[in-house]
Amino acid sequence: MNTKIKFIFIVLLFCSCTKKEFFGYVYDYDTEEPIENVHIDINGKTTKTDSVGYFCMKIKSNSPCKIVLKKESYAVKKIYRKPDSLGEFSNKSLKGNKIYLYTKESDFSNKRR
After folding, report:
1. CATH number, domain 20-111, options 3.40.50.1110, 2.60.40.1120, 3.90.1200.10, 2.30.40.10
2. Helix (H) or strand (E) holding 108
3. Which of 29, 65, 86, 112 could be cross-linked to 81 through a Cys-Cys bond (beta carbons 3.0 to 4.6 Å apart)?
4. What separation in angstroms does the CA of 49 have from each of 25, 52, 58?
5. Alpha-carbon distance 37 to 47, whole Å?
6. Taking Cα atoms as reference points, which of 59, 69, 63 lies closest to residue 94?
7. DSSP letter (8 states) at residue 84
8. Residues whose CB falls within 8 Å of the CB of residue 53, separated by 6 or more in sequence, listed in order
9. In angstroms, how far apart are the furthest CA atoms of the chain?
10. Nearest to 47 by CA among 18, 32, 26
11. E strand or H helix at 93, and its extent?
12. pLDDT tens profile 28-38
């Protein structure tokens, strides 16, 4: 292999190892229905949920995450994730997340005050 191809291969390998995908689904706490167009901010990068409440975003696997979910008429939800002792997030903590939001008027919201 020539030097240029080796360099490109190493760069691609490094990039694939330092980023992971954080994805999940957002549901209404009371109805358990998916919520569309929830604004999701992960360490300053933003995305929105689709029609089935799904979102996906690439994150750095070796740094803490602050995840903020916002939707009009719902209480703001904040989630904090830290990497494990190896400096990575475990696959379980990154995949298949179900996140529930509750409306500002729900019984659960009133109990937290």
Report:
1. 2.60.40.1120
2. helix 107-111
3. 65
4. 8, 8, 14
5. 9
6. 59
7. -
8. 25, 26, 27, 34, 35, 36, 38
9. 65
10. 26
11. helix 91-94
12. 999 999 999 99
- Whether 71 and 64 have beta carbons less than 8 Å apart is answered as no
Supply the pTM of this predicted model.
0.69
Token pair for residue 9? 């291969």
Q: What is the DSSP letter of 53?
A: S
- Domain ranges across the chain: 20-111
pLDDT band at 89 (very low <50, low <70, confident <90, very high): low
Enter the tokens of residue 27: 């549901």
Q: SS3 for 29?
A: coil
Q: In DSSP terms, which residues pair with 81 in a beta bridge?
A: 65
Which CA distances in Å does 6 have to 10, 17, 64?
A: 6, 17, 31
Q: Can you tell me the distance from the alpha carbon of 21 to that of 87, in angstroms, rounded to the nearest whole number?
A: 15
- Contact in structure between 26 and 34 (CB atoms under 8 Å): yes
Judge contact between 74 and 27, C-beta under 8 A. Answer: no
